[in-house]
Amino acid sequence: MSTVRDAQAHSLFISDLHLCQSRPLIQVQFLAFLQATVRQAQSLFILGDLFEYWAGDDDLSDPFNSAVVAALRELTHAGVFLYLIHGNRDFLLSDAFTRATGAQCLDDPSVLELYGRRVLLGHGDIWCTDDVAYQAFRQQVRDPAWQAQFLSQPLAARKAQIEALRLRSESEKSQKSMAIMDVNPQAIEALFRDFDYPPLMIHGHTHRPAKHLLQVDGHTCERWVLGDWYEQGSCLRLDASGCSQVKL
Ligand code: LP5
Ligand code: MN
Questions:
Q1: H helical segments located in 61-217
Q2: Cα of 126 to ligand 1 centre, how many Å?
Q3: Which residues does a 6 A CB cutoff place in the pocket of ligand 1?
Q4: Could you say which residues of the chain have pLDDT below 70?
Q5: Would you say residue 64 lies in a domain?
């Protein structure tokens, strides 16, 4: 149902849906979300980890993936702008995916002017600088030469390597403290300075939904962290009056 608040120009932000065949209910919830809530918005920003993992755009023809792509294409054809930032699990989403969906890929991080304020957007993993093992891994797999070599292998071989990596990641995560797997406060402060103090930041990755207030060099910033979609959806809304949580 449309409300007066919905009618106000606004954008929506989501991340960490981790869509996969083994969680069909979340896919159903996401497709319903695209067909209802998002249709009232000017733009939808997906801030990483839309998929549980993405092995390469040659997996677009998989029926599960093509259902998600078709729903996103319908959304952009209906006039909603779709923006995508890569997550640590789906950074191989590439040109064939953006062409098929009508999405526009943004750098991580990006600063955009939205409803009269500068907003910094990112996935969030890059600021988890205490997670040294993860950052070394990240540097390796974000290298274009590494990616070209990885993508030159057959899809099934890539998926097998990803499955092995997932097991290793889960095992290593169980040995890491919660603090190590969170964003580093100094990295956030440095980011805030580097981008000339944007008053608002939105990111995901840590699956710890919250609104944090940051004060650096006399400037204030609201840092909003999105939640994951494991149990239920998580979504933020931005309009001229600011950022707020959407009840899904
Ligand atoms: O995603 P999340 O939040 O559960 O965990 C992340 C970090 N883990 C990962 C791995 C992904 O979860 C697994 C799926 C990735 C698919 C990518 C597809 C293409 C690449 C394919 C490569 C084979 O990102 C986890 C962080 C956590 O966030 C919190 O920030 O701690 O990091 C790890 O656990 C990583 C380990 O610490 C280090 C792993 C080293 C693996 C080295 C093997 C080298 C393989 C590369 C080349 C074949
Ligand atoms: Mn992530």
A1: 63-77, 95-101, 132-141, 144-151, 155-173, 185-194
A2: 13
A3: 53, 88-89, 92, 125, 128, 131, 133-134, 137, 140-141, 161-162, 165-166, 168-169, 172-173, 176, 181
A4: 1-3
A5: yes
Q: What's the pLDDT at 2?
A: 54
DSSP 191: H
225 forms bridges with which residues in the sheet? 203, 210
CB 227 within 8 A of CB 247: no
Instruction: Give CB contacts under 8 A, 24+ apart, made by 57-62.
Output: 57/92, 57/93, 57/94, 57/95, 57/96, 57/97, 58/96, 58/155, 59/155, 60/96, 60/97, 60/100
Residue at 168 is within a domain: no
Q: How far apart are CA 114 and CA 237, in angstroms?
A: 12
pLDDT in tens, 8-39: 999 999 999 999 999 999 999 999 999 999 99
CATH of the domain at 45: 3.60.21.10
CA 41, chain centre distance (Å)? 18
What is the 137 CA–ligand 1 centroid distance (Å)?
7
Q: Which domain holds residue 219?
A: 10-130+182-246
Per the domain annotation, does 225 fall within a domain? yes
CA–centroid distance, 205 to ligand 2, in Å, is 4
State the total domains in the chain: 1
| Assigned domain for 159 exists | no
Amino acid at 52: E
pLDDT in tens, 51-65: 999 999 999 999 999
